[in-house]
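Progress note, sequence design subtask.
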């Protein structure tokens, strides 16, 4: 069984990538909505949330964790990963490694303020593709829009437009450095030049998960998912059903830490 965690709904895009890659493992998904948005929190607070999230998944007896939150990966690069009895797949590390041999020369990363502050994406991409130019732009307005259900709103369109307007005009690729942002992909597609390639790190994370499953010999699953939140369970369930199309997976509330 695989464990996924995020501050909220964004990690569902990573779950979708796992399923698109043909991974049928049973999944436990935890949304730490009591503490969102992560991007505005201190590194110390974020590292504490990371420890709590991994401890919770350990209690649920997962075999591995596929991180679905870029912000905590960025903090873990600086402060270290907490010890766990299972392997943990680092979303930023796997996303960066996927740029080896990339044809892109000018790459923009849009992410939360905490992820951008860390510089983790730039380091990961440059390590895999020396000489590539990377610019990192914070987009703090986007996560609250997704979490509030305003993805299709004109406010969301305007917020994405403002992010794109802040990007250098010569970029040839953009990386969604927050797992919430692919849910706004249609607005990015409309605002960016057609030549700009939009990259979702969840694809690289799913490929890494597939390799881990094969290497460890994890048994096949039934493709079921259980979703937990320490936020509003009713709003969370509605969002899970809407974004995943999963109308049978169990959705449950957890007491906030």
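Output:
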């Amino acid at each position: 069984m695989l464990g996924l965690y995020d501050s909220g709904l964004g990690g569902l895009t990573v779950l979708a990538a796992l399923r698109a890659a043909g991974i049928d493992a049973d999944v436990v998904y935890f949304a730490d909505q009591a503490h969102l948005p992560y991007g505005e929190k201190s590194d110390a607070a974020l590292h504490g949330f990371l420890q709590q999230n991994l401890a919770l998944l350990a209690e649920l007896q997962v075999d591995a964790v596929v991180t679905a939150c870029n912000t905590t990966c960025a903090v873990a690069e600086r402060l270290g990963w907490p010890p766990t009895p299972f392997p943990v797949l680092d979303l930023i590390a796997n996303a960066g490694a996927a740029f080896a041999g990339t044809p892109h020369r000018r790459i923009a990363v849009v992410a939360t303020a905490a992820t951008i502050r860390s510089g983790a994406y730039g380091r990961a991409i440059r390590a895999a593709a020396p000489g590539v130019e990377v610019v990192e732009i914070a987009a703090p307005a986007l996560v609250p829009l997704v979490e509030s259900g305003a993805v299709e709103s004109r406010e969301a369109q305007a917020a994405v437009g403002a992010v794109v307007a802040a990007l250098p005009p010569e970029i040839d690729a953009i990386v969604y450095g927050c797992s919430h942002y692919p849910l706004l992909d249609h607005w990015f597609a409309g605002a960016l030049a057609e030549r700009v390639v939009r990259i979702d790190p969840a694809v690289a994370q799913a490929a890494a998960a597939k390799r881990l499953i094969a290497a460890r010999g994890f048994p096949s699953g039934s493709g079921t998912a259980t979703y937990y939140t320490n936020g509003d369970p009713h709003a969370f369930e509605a969002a899970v059903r809407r974004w995943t199309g999963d109308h049978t997976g169990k959705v449950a509330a957890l007491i906030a830490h």
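The chain has two domains: 2-91+203-253, 93-200. Work on this subtask will continue into the next period as scheduled.
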